[in-house]
Design brief:
Elements: H1 23-42, H2 47-67, H3 73-91, H4 96-104, H5 106-125, H6 131-148, E1 152-158, E2 161-166, H7 172-181, H8 205-208, E3 259-265, E4 274-276, E5 279-286, E6 289-296, E7 302-309, E8 313-314, E9 318-319, E10 326-328, E11 331-335, E12 340-345, E13 351-356, H9 357-361, E14 375-377, E15 380-385, E16 388-393, E17 399-402, E18 414-418, E19 421-428, E20 431-435, E21 442-447, E22 457-459, E23 463-468, E24 476-485, E25 488-497, E26 508-510, E27 513-518, E28 521-526, E29 532-536, E30 543-547, E31 552-556, E32 561-566, E33 574-579, E34 590-592, E35 595-599, E36 603-608
Antiparallel strand pairs: 1-2, 3-36, 4-5, 5-6, 6-7, 8-9, 10-11, 11-12, 12-13, 14-15, 15-16, 16-17, 18-19, 19-20, 20-21, 22-23, 23-24, 24-25, 26-27, 27-28, 28-29, 30-31, 31-32, 32-33, 34-35, 35-36
Length: 614
């Protein structure tokens, strides 16, 4: 009998599949999570690198799964298709704060590491199962990962990422509205203030002064109505520079800590305070009303409030106004996030006049809302409708002039005197512009593609400092020289530095140095060349005031902590730290005498700081 040719041959099962090659996926997803979530904790300034690096490692996981995992091709392609479809469907059901966060990219940015983990975990757990259960396990892991995002919401960005909460938990604003519904409304009884001086009679510009061409405008005398100056008239103080002279505080807070005077809940807003006498003014959001409120400085009790039917919300910064009230001659001037410009009687909140600057200037609502605080100069109040200035008559609210179009922007109009000429500066997305206060005509401009948020600063009489953080094409600080000659105005760059990169935390200037937040840390640069002297501390996107008499910075961190830091270039030295307020805090602090006011989107607090011993 003839033996078969196949005798002794090994029988091979045609359905045999090599085991999954899992270790590259495990390593890649471990590195992804390490880079995405651990590195930013250790190095906060590496947050953007972590986001993009995480996306890159997510691509590595996809490449592993497609070409090196040994999974059947139907599983390789099916898992990726399921991820894409599930993510697209999930976006229809997530909370608006998730759908719109990071300019609509939040879900994708956070889903990449979660889905990669789900894929790898599903493959590892099901590696010993038969085909059906294995596929069901991987599919279930992917769907579960997507489903998690339908259960959460975000309260915006904070520090190195988003601030997540369960979707069903009430927001601080919702809790405040429930509490306020049972409280008695203020009677808006007029408070005792000096009677406003008569508003100046508006006359044509030609009757006031002889105006030369804008390029060579000469300084004109400022016509001011006699009035008692407010202690803190508005955004960043009297000069909009966060500098407080004549104040000395004790720096040993371990022995003499700040004393809390009162603490009150408040609606969301990124406004700061204006202070006059025993009253404070601020803005907030309550439901569908944008609120301007006056409270007692000594108790925090509400005195009066004014409401406009308007609500602005976006997922990164949340709801509410962004600007700070401005006090002048017995009136409160406020600018809402949707463009409502109000002139109110400071005594009782009654409306003197109201305009919509967005409509008047034909400007679209910017992504983060209108944020510039009004500027009162002469007989005008000037608002920044995004990157365009518009001036209104104080007496009537009638538009007087419109500045040049400047694109988008979030900074406030800034009064400056350069080479003896009064002018209004504005930092916007195109750079910095200067216009004449009398007619809004352009004096000069300097192109610099910034994020258009922080305030400019005039130094040495005719030089201007401008800054830009991670949101601009240009990043860092730039010093420009502004010169007026017979031919007009000239602007020259002196230096550009990345030693300080202010995003929306304003910087201060002291003794030839600038101090500000770079990423999440304080930084000091030399104004002669822009070189960094030191960088230290962890304050997130906080704000600060300068006490020049003590060479001292009073810092309010993004997480609500107060800190005292030496405003000296030799080294970073933190002298004291104190927990002041709960929650994310982007609002500018206010110091009047030794009374400190802080607030955020949840509460406002007053502290008495210990006075320095003499």
């Amino acid at each position: 009998m003839k033996k078969s040719d196949t005798a002794g041959a090994v029988s091979v099962d045609p359905t045999f599949q090599k085991p999954l090659r899992l270790w590259p996926g495990v390593v890649a997803v471990a590195l992804l999570w390490l880079l995405r979530y651990i590195v930013p904790i250790i190095i906060p300034d590496a947050a953007m690198f972590a986001i993009f690096g995480g996306l890159g490692l997510g691509l590595v996981v996809v490449v592993w799964w497609l070409f090196f995992s040994r999974a059947p091709w139907i599983e390789r392609l099916g898992a990726l298709v399921l991820m894409v479809v599930a993510l697209a469907v999930t976006k229809r059901f997530v909370h608006p704060s998730i759908a719109g966060g990071m300019q609509g990219m939040l879900l994708f940015v956070y889903a990449v590491p979660v889905l990669c983990l789900a894929l790898v975990a599903g493959a590892v757990v099901s590696r010993g199962l038969s085909t059906g259960p294995r596929r069901a396990t991987i599919m279930g892991a992917i769907l579960l990962a997507c489903g998690v995002f339908t259960l959460i919401r975000t309260a915006g960005i904070i520090g190195i990422g988003s601030e997540f909460h369960w979707r069903w938990t009430p927001t601080p604003e919702e809790l405040l509205l429930v509490q306020a519904s049972s409280e008695k409304e203020p009677e808006n009884v007029p408070i005792s203030l000096p009677a406003p001086a008569a508003a100046p009679v508006e006359t044509p510009l030609s009757a006031k002064t002889s105006i030369k061409p804008a390029a060579v405008a000469s300084p004109t005398p400022v016509e001011r109505v006699a009035e008692k100056k407010a202690e803190w008239p508005g955004f960043r103080g009297p000069e909009r520079d966060n500098v407080i002279h004549g104040v000395g505080i004790e720096t040993n807070w371990s022995q003499s800590p700040p004393v809390e005077l009162w603490r009150k809940p408040i609606g969301p807003a990124w406004s700061s305070f204006a202070v006059n006498g025993s009253h404070i003014y601020t803005q907030e959001q309550r439901g569908e009303e944008e609120i301007v409120s006056c409270s007692d400085l000594n108790t925090g009790e509400l005195v009066w409030k004014h409401g406009d039917s308007a609500r602005f919300w976006e997922s990164n910064a949340g709801a509410g106004p962004r600007a700070t009230p401005t006090l002048s001659n017995g009136r409160v001037y406020t600018f809402g996030a949707t463009g409502i410009l109000n002139a109110l009687d400071a005594r009782d909140g009654s409306v003197v006049w109201s305009r919509n600057a967005a409509s008047d200037a034909d400007e679209k609502l910017p992504a983060w809302g209108f944020a510039g605080s009004p500027l009162v100069i002469d007989s005008l109040v000037v608002a920044a409708a995004a990157g365009r200035l518009i001036a209104y008559e104080l007496a009537t609210g009638k538009p007087r002039w419109y500045g040049p179009n400047g694109g988008w922007g979030y900074s406030s109009p800034h009064l400056a005197v350069i080479d003896g000429v009064a002018q209004i500066l504005l930092l916007n997305g195109e750079g910095v512009i200067s216009v004449a206060p009398t007619d809004g005509k352009l004096l000069w401009k300097h192109e610099w593609k910034s994020d258009g948020i922080v305030q400019p600063c005039v130094i040495a009489g005719s030089d201007v400092l401008i800054g830009s953080g991670s949101g601009g094409v240009e990043v860092g600080m730039r010093r420009i020289a502004v010169v007026r000659d017979p031919e007009g105005w000239r602007v020259e760059e002196r230096w550009t530095s990345t030693g300080l990169k202010p995003y929306f935390s304003d910087f201060v200037v002291h003794k030839g140095h600038a101090f500000g937040v770079d990423g999440s840390m304080l930084s000091c640069i030399d104004l002669t060349d822009g070189k960094r002297k030191w960088k230290g501390g962890r304050y997130g996107a906080g704000q600060m005031v300068l006490l020049p008499d003590q060479d001292l910075l009073l810092v309010l961190s993004e997480h609500g902590e107060l800190a005292l830091v030496n405003a000296t270039p030799d080294q970073f030295t933190e002298l004291a730290r104190f927990p002041a307020i709960k929650g994310k805090t982007w609002n500018h602090p206010v110091l009047v005498g030794n009374l400190l006011l802080v607030r955020n989107s949840q509460e406002m607090v007053a502290f008495r700081l210990p006075v320095a011993r003499t």
